[in-house]
Amino acid sequence: MKKIASIAGIALVLFFVIAQPGQAAHLVSNIVDFLRSSAEAVITFVSNVFNG
Length: 52
Hints:
The chain is mostly helical. The protein is built from two helices and no strands.
């Protein structure tokens, strides 16, 4: 069941990339921006905790 779900997920991602590459690129860009800002927020928090 887990293998079938992972294959279906990969197929869905490939379909999305092939059918709408511009939107897929925009989605990846948004995800990277979110991860970057989240990491910066965590770094700021930890820095403030240890530096008072």
